[in-house]
Design brief:
It contains nine helices and seven strands, in the order αββααβααβαβαβαβα. It is α/β, with parallel strands linked by helices and 231 residues long. It has one domain: Rossmann fold, CATH 3.40.50.2020. Strands 1-2-7-6-3 form a five-stranded mixed sheet, sandwiched between helices. Strands 4-5 form a two-stranded antiparallel ribbon. Helix 3 crosses helix 5. The N and C termini lie far apart (56 Å). Bound molecules: zinc ion (ZN). The site of zinc ion (ZN) has 7 residues, from helix 1.
């Protein structure tokens, strides 16, 4: 039996019905206002040879959303985040030929069943009409989960040879010398993204790093931003 004639979208953050008009049907108005957009702090300033960006501060509700994507399979939230990240790419005038998600090691992929960054990448790439290339970059070494006993330096050493680029892959020739968007979910120390970016860079591919969320820089809230822009 037909239950409803209309498709009512539900907010992927709070579960309430999303009422129009909205720029994004996956997130309701209230949740949209609560998202920690980095706004004019999307460009990250750090000592890397490639430009790096992040769309959100790593704060609530993005933090909980990320956890639920990884451990409760909330891929709808990954999709919503990916769509919003496309706005960062447009706002920052970034141009790239492909989107490459930071891969998980096979073992980790089997454990989890999916790569959350890949789902974010697909939603982002669809909006930008770019291909997602997953075969070129692989993670050959599994690094232990970040723990308090492991220093940034130790982690960097572990990660140094963790990624490899398959120069025999059909996408390699097309992307050689071309810019790609290298995508990660959360940028904390930046060591994973740096290791993956180095592998691509060393193989002759131009890298633009883009993370969904990062804690880098001071958080600027909605009210603060409004005051700054309108006064
Ligand atoms: Zn909501």
């Amino acid at each position: 039996m037909l239950k409803s004639l209309y498709y009512i979208p539900y907010c992927c953050v709070c579960g309430e019905a999303v009422l129009p008009p909205l720029p994004e049907h996956l997130i309701c108005r209230a949740c949209l206002a609560s998202l920690p957009f980095r706004m004019d702090r999307e460009r990250l300033h750090w000592d890397k040879p490639w430009p790096s960006y992040a769309s959100f501060f790593y704060r609530e509700p993005i933090q909980s959303m990320m956890v639920s994507i990884k451990f409760a399979g909330r891929t709808d939230r990954a999709e919503a985040i990916g769509r919003w990240m496309a706005r960062t790419v447009r706002r920052q005038n970034l141009s790239a030929d492909a989107v490459i998600p930071v891969p998980l090691h096979q073992k980790r992929l089997r454990e989890r069943g999916f790569n959350q960054t890949e789902i974010i990448a697909k939603a982002l790439a669809e909006r930008l009409r770019l291909p997602v290339v997953e075969t070129l970059l692989s993670r050959i070494l599994d690094t232990p989960r970040q723990s308090e006993t492991q220093s940034v330096e130790e982690r960097r050493r572990h990660l140094k040879d963790a990624f490899t680029v398959d120069t025999k892959d059909s996408a390699f020739k097309a992307l050689l010398g071309r810019p790609v968007l290298l995508l990660d979910d959360v940028l904390t120390t930046g060591s994973t993204l740096t290791a993956a970016a180095s592998a691509l860079n060393n193989a002759g591919i131009q890298v633009i790093c883009l993370a969904a969320a990062s804690g880098h820089g001071r958080y600027i809230g909605y009210n603060e931003a409004l005051a700054k822009w309108h006064l």
